[in-house]
Amino acid sequence: MNKILVILLSDPVSVEYLYFSLIAGRTFIERLCWISKKAGYKDAIVLYDSNSDGLKKLLINAPGQVFPSLEKASAGSESTFVFLKPDIFPTNDFLKNLLLPDKKDTLYLTGENSPVIVISASDISRLSQMLSSKSNIDSLQETLSKKYPFVTFDLDNRKFHTIKDHGDISHVEKSLYRDLIKETDGLMARHFNRKISLAITGQLINTSITPNQMSLVSIGIGLIGALLLSFPIISLQVFGALLFLFHSITDGCDGELARLKYMETRWGGLLDYWGDNIVHTAVFLGIGIAWEKATGSMIALWCSGFAIAGSVLTAGLVYVMTMRSGKDDGPVYTSTSWKQKKDRWVNIADFLSRRDFIYLVVILAIFGKLHWFLILAAIGAPAFFLFTLWNNFSKIPIKNIPRDP
Fold it and tell me: How many Å apart are CA 224 and CA 370, to the nearest integer?
């Protein structure tokens, strides 16, 4: 049975104030529609007053289906309709885990003044008439509870936000930003990088900058940093290392923008993934060139070669095993292994793949010891490739290894 989110725009207060208020760069109504999509709903239907020309204009870019009545929406008799109070901002988990009614023509509520109404009606025309005659969700609940038998259910502590004024919108935005912190973030990325990247994203959210454009900016910053690292001058290398760190920080902005603006694409995820690896390769090469210029030793370039080879091989392996095929939205890189059940060794590999090592680059640059980092990378990158290779193929029958469809 399909779940349909129904958004009622018959209440003038909710239309003029709430549903078209901006929340982190998107209107309330846009976020409702997109959250329902993420939660697996078949559709979001926006019902509006057909006599309101101003409302029609506001709904031109609404991401849901816009209809003057539920009957004209033709949602089908096998659909479950979910109505939210206009001051309720749901989380993805809230909508995703709402129960599916096991009875037709039965109203499901959480009690008096329920924040959500769930119903599967066999007569869409009858339900549509009830909707068109009600000015708000509270009067709709009262009418429906008189016409249909109702059952109360528990929300099981699933979270939602209640928005009464602009102060509450600020709380919702902060919650959305907190949810952007990923499990794959390292210690420093979580407690330092992410705070800066979220502040930058907060300034960019209402601009026309796209996630892919932000990815290219971040890659450009990293490549400039790699170029400065190729000069055997400590001041330039420190500046280059700081740019490398800033690349790592701004690298979080593209994903944050994509998730907040609902612009996640597979192409964007791959651009982010391979862009990071291009920057890493350039940094290894830059440090090696500076070391060779300072000492004339070919060992420097050999170390660069081993570090680059290990990094590129690992990136290619992870891509083939975990990212070669997948969904069109959401994060592309989630782990170094394709195994759904992660064991201790996969967790260790995922931990080692995080980018906290960039802080070591900055510290060593300050003391003029970047060649130490390159020596470690020349040993560690190939070793990590072999470790990742073993993680993906050990104790797994060949027939279970993922292949292209």
Answer: 17
Report the first-to-last Cα separation within the chain, whole angstroms: 29
- Find, among 353, 361, 360, 355, the residue nearest to 337 by Cα: 353
Tens place of pLDDT for every residue, the chain, 405 residues?
678 888 877 555 454 557 778 888 788 888 888 888 888 888 887 776 655 555 555 555 555 555 555 655 555 557 788 888 877 888 888 888 777 777 788 888 877 777 888 888 777 777 777 776 655 677 778 888 888 888 887 776 667 888 877 778 888 888 888 888 776 666 777 778 888 998 899 889 888 899 999 999 999 999 999 999 999 999 999 999 999 999 999 998 998 898 888 888 888 989 999 999 999 999 999 999 999 999 999 999 999 999 999 999 999 999 988 887 766 656 677 788 887 777 888 888 888 888 888 999 999 999 999 999 999 999 999 999 999 999 888 765 444 555 554
* Domains of the chain from N-terminus onward: 2-162 (3.90.550.10), 183-400 (1.20.120.1760)
Q: For residue 196, which of 206, 207, 185 has the smallest C-alpha distance?
A: 185
Q: Please give the angle made by the CA atoms of 40, 46 and 51, to the nearest 5 degrees.
A: 170
- The number of C-alpha atoms within 13 Å of 221 and in the hemisphere containing its C-beta is 19
Closest to 130 measured CA to CA, from 107, 113, 114: 107
Q: Rounded distance, CA 389 to CA 155, Å?
A: 44
Query: From residue 288, how far is each of 77, 235, 300 by CA, in Å?
Result: 67, 17, 5
Dist CA 173 CA 176 (whole Å): 5
